[in-house]
């Protein structure tokens, strides 16, 4: 049975295989002994290899050992967990924060906890799979609204205005398209209809806003988004996730979020690396400026080729459509020394396969030119 299903996936050009990277993750990586320019990493600020993170992790391992040994509510909470949570709360201008082992664990745990039978959930149709699965685990009534469609959101809220608990959930930055949620309008609707608003800021933390605090800072909405999720594994170059909000929210999640309660705590050395990453984000604003300069260089180059993109962030999808051609385009880029993955259904809607390019602060001007030259060849060869 499994062989047949795998065969069908291969016939549909949807079979996925793992690519083994043999080096540290920098702007260049080694695969099969060869050097490739990495254009599909979420390490936007290039912190995954930063010496400060490595040294902080090593010091913490010397002091605390490697593993945490238990869940947070048993004996797994260390000083490093508390220090990181306090630092994250301050970073997000919130009363408190709580750590989760991944963004997936955070979204599934929070949504399942906050939206229960008799409540309603509103979720953008292009939200991340972790939000989708969190909604499925919840017993609340689920409404999927059209992508960034504020009128559709209000129609649902009007229809359900008698329901006491309503939760709107959206990505801050949509991970496959690179566009930004219309948060000012969502905040206004949430306040108007008495709904809670949860924003997944996984791809905005460290990237958006004057000081990298995410979409709330970007839109000037700090203090008006009650539930902010973020990850430590993307721009912060570490691992894990967090939710920031009121003290009552965090205390409630400690007592109700199953993915928090029943998971072994993050190793203290991971927390130490995340603390170091936050220090860098707070101090090295030029790193974020370099990221956005690189992004502008790449977008400008694409437009000069006649390739338009609706992206608003360092996530830049280059649309192809057909899954087979997207795979071929990715392989062709590989031949040109670029590692940029093909993204296919079900990760993206049918007929919208693409090369998802992600820009890093550690890419050089010459790296971006190299990438543009490779995409120019794809264009000339009819892939784009």
Keyword list:
about 375 residues, alpha/beta, 15 helices, Aspartate Aminotransferase, domain 1, seven-stranded mixed sheet, Aspartate Aminotransferase, domain 2, 2 domains
Molecular structure report:
This protein has helices at residues 2-11, 51-64, 72-76, 79-91, 103-114, 129-137, 150-159, 183-193, 215-219, 247-256, 258-261, 268-283, 285-304, 323-335, 365-380, and strands at residues 28-31, 34-38, 96-100, 120-124, 141-145, 166-171, 196-200, 227-231, 241-245, 315-321, 338-339, 342-343, 353-358. The radius of gyration is 21 Å and the shape is globular. Strands 3-9-8-7-6-4-5 form a 7-stranded mixed beta sheet, sandwiched between helices. It is 44% helix and 16% strand. The two termini are 37 Å apart. It has 384 residues and is α/β, with parallel strands linked by helices. The longest helix is centred in the last third of the chain and has 20 residues, at 285-304. Helix 2 runs antiparallel to helix 12 (268-283), helix 4 packs parallel to helix 12 and helix 13 (285-304) packs parallel to helix 15.
